[in-house]
Amino acid sequence: MSEHLHKQRLDNPYVVTTETLANGHITDEVCTNGTCAAETLVYDIRRSRYLNITGRCTLRCAFCPKHNGSKQIHEYQLALSHQPKPEEIIPLLGEVTDFEEYVFCGYGEPTLNLPTLLAVAKEIKQRGGRVRINTDGLGNLVHRRNILPELAGCVDSLSISLNADNEAAYIEHCRPKLAGSYAAMHAFIALAPHYIDTVQVSAIEGLAGVDIVRCREQVESYGCQFKHRLLGALG
User: Fold this and answer.
1) Membrane spanning segments where (predicted)?
2) pLDDT digits (tens, 9 = 90+) for 63-122
């Protein structure tokens, strides 16, 4: 499957990108020629094809490798210099029968590149594939509207990161950029099962101040599946 992986050489040694979100927050990303020498837009883990559509995120998680000197997962370098467009991703989808699912997941928050996400997800569904999104659950907060109805027509499942059972631990470990993120994430989780067939919510064992049992209770109270993750385990 490696022949499907897309890498693009960059000539400029420093790439700086900025974006003003709907709520006025300005994000920025700085890449050096060492980390952005090649851009991986799709990558494969087991029988899933992962779609890397943004490097920007609404969180700055202290446990995320990209905040600890690495934007790599397995052998794939996931640093991006730009927000990929649908026409960059769609040619790289391959045959849907080769994959159990397509997963929007990189080291950024996929809903921050919502136009590409929706266009590519619709293309996958038209071809008969399955679509999953890994998200921090802050899409509604960022876009100032409920985006779940837009996702409902082209997304089969969501994997949402809860990470902590209380706001203090969430702020400590996830370091959100936007005020009200913890409450907004919970609201998104509560709404999600009304629109998406399969909703899995994860929390990480090993983070200080996080009660993993309480996390499970919160997730199940929303009618979602709970995923118990271990600190440091990726992919």
Assistant:
1) none
2) 886 544 445 555 556 778 889 999 999 999 999 999 999 999 988 999 999 999 999 999
> In this predicted model, what pLDDT tens digit does every residue of 189-206 receive, in sequence order?
999 999 999 999 999 888
Phi then psi dihedrals of residue 117, to 5 deg: -55, -50
pTM: 0.80
Contact criterion met (CB below 8 Å) for 59 and 174: yes
* Residue 85 main-chain phi, psi, to 5 deg: -90, 160
Nearest CA to 142 out of 110, 103, 172 is that of 110
Q: Which domains are delineated in the chain?
A: 29-230 (3.20.20.70)
Quote the CA–CA distance of 38 and 60 in Å, as a whole number. Answer: 23
Please state, in angstroms and rounded to a whole number, the distance separating the CA atoms of residues 117 and 51. Answer: 9
User: What is the phi/psi pair of residue 198, to 5°?
Assistant: -120, 120
| Tokens 């080769």 found at | 98
